[in-house]
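Dear U.,

Please find below the material for section 3 of the report. The protein was modelled together with adenosine-5'-triphosphate; I have listed the sequence and SMILES used, followed by the predicted complex structure.
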Amino acid sequence: MTELKHPDAVSLRGIRKRYGAVTAVAGVDLTIGSGEVVALLGPNGAGKSTTVDIMLGLRAPDAGRAELFGTRPRAALDAGSVGAVLQTGELIPGARVGELLTAIAALQPHPLPIGQVAATAGVADLLTRRTDRLSGGQTQRVRFALALLGDPSLLVLDEPTAGLDVAARRDFWTSVRGFAAAGRTVLFSTHYLEEADETADRIVLIDQGRVVADGSTTAIRAMAAARNVRCTLPGADPVALADLPGAASVEVHGDAVLVRTTDSDATLRALVAGYPQARDFEVAAAALTDAFLALTRPDAPAEVA
Ligand SMILES: Nc1ncnc2c1ncn2[C@@H]1O[C@H](COP(=O)(O)OP(=O)(O)OP(=O)(O)O)[C@@H](O)[C@H]1O
């Protein structure tokens, strides 16, 4: 593994970036330790790609500092410590996959054997194929192989499975998990909670250019299963409602009650039994962002307006 000795693979401090009137990144702090597998999860336009580009030294931030293994991103890239699969960039058309891997390996300070990389990335049967005759899933696997050639300690993947079908996605993530199993660091961005859930140890939720939550995948999965139970209940007491089974947080606005719960069946049964005057029941999936906020603010008091 090509590694610069430093405990943190990634360190972002106070990163900000605007494009004209659009604030893409609004102050991101993020530390990723060596060996972590982290998903950067967020909706379209959340600022994931801009954050990744700054992290890799491909874009300059307006403010803040990005370091990989305690050094400038470009120095870490030049040392072969970092491999990346980005959304942009075409494979050289007309080249054979094996030729391309051989050519790029020659540029690396400490290349891995082509056969090993091809096996890890699942491209061993594609080496004689032309790069412009590959399917989307095969193209992504070749790009993944190219990123592995320098034997990186950190792999950065920006929405690597965008546009791939379910089978191609599954194969891709199997290869990534194989890479991560060797104790290397992986950061990937995705829109899909399932991808984050299946592959990452930690999920960082980014929304409107900010980190709005950061937690273990287990904790995030539990919160993603959260439901909102709403009802009309005159004279509701938020403190008493907070004792309902499964209740994570309670909001009371006049007669309107919102209970965020991890067990909506139990909450609803107890609500019906304990509050006969309650009516207009409604149960809905909690928005992921709400779930993350509830997760990261466990001490938040019940809100009353
Ligand atoms: N080169 C650019 N010029 C102007 N605005 C940009 C540019 N790149 C990104 N933006 C804007 O900055 C914001 C963040 O974009 P970014 O691509 O970083 O988000 P993202 O989370 O990666 O989105 P997606 O999931 O859609 O790829 C968006 O509002 C986007 O329209």
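For the text of the report, you could mention the following: The pocket of adenosine-5'-triphosphate is lined by residues 19, 22, 24, 42, 44-50, 191 (CB under 6 Å).

Regards,
Y.
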